[in-house]
Amino acid sequence: AKMNVAAKPHPEAAQRKKGGGKRQRKDDEHGDEHGDAAGGAKRKRKEGVGGSKKGKHAAAAAEHEQHGIVQEVDVLEAGFSVSVHYASHRRSSSADAGGEWRPGTVVRAYLSAQNGEPIYDIMMHSGVEEKAVAHDRCRMVCNVCLSDKRAFKPPPMFCEKCFQAIHTRWSYWEESGDEGGVKLCKRCFSDLKATSTADRVLSEIAHRNVKIDNFLEKKEKDRPEYVDNWVQCDECHSWLHWTCAMYKGEDTPEDCLFFCGNCRRTRGKTLPKELCVAPSEDLAETVLSKKLQDGLKKELAASGVKAAPVTIRVVSNIDCFAKIAPPPPLPGTAAAHSAAKNGAKVALQNGKVGGREFPYRSKCILAFQRMQGGDGPEVCFFAMYVQEYGSECPEPNTNRVYISYLDSVRYFKSAPEGQRTTVYHSILINYLDYARGLGFEHGHIWVSPPKQGDDYIFYAHPEVMLQKRMGLLKLKEWYEKMLIIAKDKGVIADFQDMLDAYKDIESASDIPVFSGDHWAASIALKIQELKNKEKELAKKKGGGHNGKGSKAASGSGVHADIKQEEALLNQIQEEMRSMRNHFIVVTLAEQRQAGKRNKVVDPVPIMSNEFVDQRSSFLEKCQMYHWQFDEEVNAAHSTLMLLYYLHGMHRTAAAARQKAAAADLAARGLGGAGASSEQQQRSRSSKIEMAMQDWTQLLNHANEAAASETWDLPPEELFLRILAQINKSKRDILQEKYNQCRDPSTTAATRSVFIRVLKRIAESFMSCLHNMQANRQLPNAAASSAAAPAAARSAPAAAAARPLCLRLG
């Protein structure tokens, strides 16, 4: 809240009718204006009214009765929740001089007969009624949390040169200007400042002229602040934060009525269907979700744990391909014979050894529970992503499951407390039992606790989880305890670390590698390093000449391949030895006879939701829309919005908007020139949709390349279509970078930077295309105002992305 702001009634507040139900946006630039408008004055200069002496209260009440009410006003309405400032000592003349803010409720609002200033009768929560409280001693607060501002955790900020996250408490350097610009961490800024090519490097990053002398150092207090929006109850007229009110907000018409939770409980009001979101129980149930849910229910009952029912659902099950390059097998071994028989090829692609594709099913599993003993809102407290490589997948990934990511927040409620581990172990054990029943033979777990500030699936964990994070050995012990229980129950046959599981391998190609796994990137990097060393050795022996002489000098042929394979295998085993606590291999069933494998048929139907198909997409959307899990109320509202997208309600709302826009055009009776205009609009719409398809395809490819850490380039045909949509200067730069990354000698780090840049560009263009499509669908002002709440919460992210899109043309 700002200090010493003049107290003036807002014109909209004076005109607001009871039951208007207006939603107001409160962001980092306009939040204080709203507080002055509908919430009463912020902390401003005060007159000293309402002291602690009883004589003052009696005198003010007598004066009020003597002069009478002059005029009813609507600055702070009756029923508004407010905080009243009490000075710490008698001579304090402003709210910022210290003191205490106490909550209360406005009983009536009127103008003073002496000076015409608005004053209020307020019933304090302590039970005392304050008479004639001055306007500048009050500020409007949320009727639930009793605070005037609900701030969100700022989204992560990244250095645009090294792409490393800039910690919240770190200082950084940013291009000066009202809209901001390029951001650099302290190390990158210092390195650039010491070079003579700093301006050229910055211009290549931003695709425009940027000078390093225009950068300013900024600290935590200079970061933009993101705060929650407001909504007013149409029954009691109190104002609440969207989060506190569990207000959906997205795609909600402006004239839609809203009733707060208190009015729904005490006055029999119900929410309209536009604001109702179906519970998690209404999500489609599958064989897997039923097994996990029933197994957990039995486990809690057997342990004597009482808790509100837990709903478990599989919300995504999609076909994926892991483009992982196995190294060449050792000549003369069974692996080499199998590769020759199956026609496997090894080729150098994009700086990595390219080989077979490993198809797999990626599943997302979520667990929900209602708070307040089953009567409150739902909270999603557990999430898990798994990869299932079935019988159709080639060796060595055949019939293996990989627990890719697992995340939780501490909101599971039970009696007695502290049963979260029981829940998580039950879900994992029942999943391994499900996989074993289908015919999977091995399970793989990567033990990797998150680093400080990292989020795997849920955005913004509770503070207590950040302070008491599990270390590597503690987390491994947690998994081993679960596996011991599973072994005692006969779910698994055995488990061991990766070094013991693969101590007898003949080739690095015998090691199963998974999408996004550590070994997928590590093995490819080691192969490239060995090839580079071989080239350097060949140059030295051949006197710096290339060609057949250098090949002969380097000892090419079978002996060179054997030597290279042995060196690679030794390096991998040495790394396994140093990381033996990071990887666990679970044997689900005894090894079958050679050449005989179980036929795995997935009983879960294919289901896709762009919101949760990929872990990175889920996390990024939560960061963009400020759907946090650091507090229970934030987690409940984030779960509400998650269910809104899981049920596909956003698609229904978009279709309704299109239908309403079409009906509005039909009602106008467009003809002649109007028909031509409508035809032009359809042509423009078709172009926007085609562009959105291209940019969506590029964004999905970039997300996939980043998630799997393969950093594969997009197809050339798609890339050429993308280049045609941007201006020539940027087109040439991107084409040059694309050609550079296609060079086999280009490092993975260089390609990763290019893929991240493409991802940023795609996100920016998608934001602008969505805005263009929304403007096309809602041509009149009324329709535009109806769409405003849908974009209000994501406005900071869209505004941040817009300058990049405009710079690219």
Structure description:
It is a single chain. With 809 residues, the protein is α+β, with helices and mostly antiparallel strands. The chain has 25 helices and 22 strands. Helix 20 runs antiparallel to helix 23. The longest helix has 36 residues. 33% of the residues are buried.
In angstroms, what separates the terminal alpha carbons? Answer: 38 Å
- The coarse overall form would be globular
Mean pLDDT: 77
Strand content: 15-25%
Oligomer: single chain
* CA-based gyration radius: 31 Å
Strand count, sense and closure of the main sheet?
7 strands, mixed
Give a short synopsis of this structure.
With 809 residues, the protein is of the alpha+beta class.
Question: Which keywords apply here?
Answer:
globular; seven-stranded mixed sheet; 809 residues; 25 helices; disordered N terminus; five-stranded antiparallel sheet; alpha+beta; disordered C terminus; 22 strands; 42% helix
Could you give the topology of this structure?
Blueprint: H1 11-15, E1 23-24, H2 31-38, H3 54-67, E2 81-86, E3 100-111, E4 118-124, E5 129-134, E6 138-140, E7 157-158, E8 165-166, E9 172-175, E10 183-184, H4 186-193, H5 198-206, E11 215-218, E12 230-232, E13 239-241, H6 242-245, H7 261-266, H8 287-302, E14 310-323, H9 334-342, E15 347-349, E16 352-354, E17 357-370, E18 378-389, E19 400-408, H10 420-438, E20 442-446, H11 463-467, H12 472-488, E21 494-497, H13 498-501, H14 518-541, H15 548-553, H16 558-578, E22 583-587, H17 615-625, H18 632-646, H19 649-668, H20 673-708, H21 716-723, H22 728-742, H23 748-777, H24 781-792, H25 795-808
Parallel strand pairs: 19-20
Antiparallel strand pairs: 1-12, 2-3, 2-6, 3-4, 4-5, 7-8, 9-10, 9-11, 12-13, 14-17, 15-16, 17-18, 18-19, 20-22, 21-22
Helix pairs in contact: 8-10, 10-12, 14-16, 20-21, 20-23, 23-25
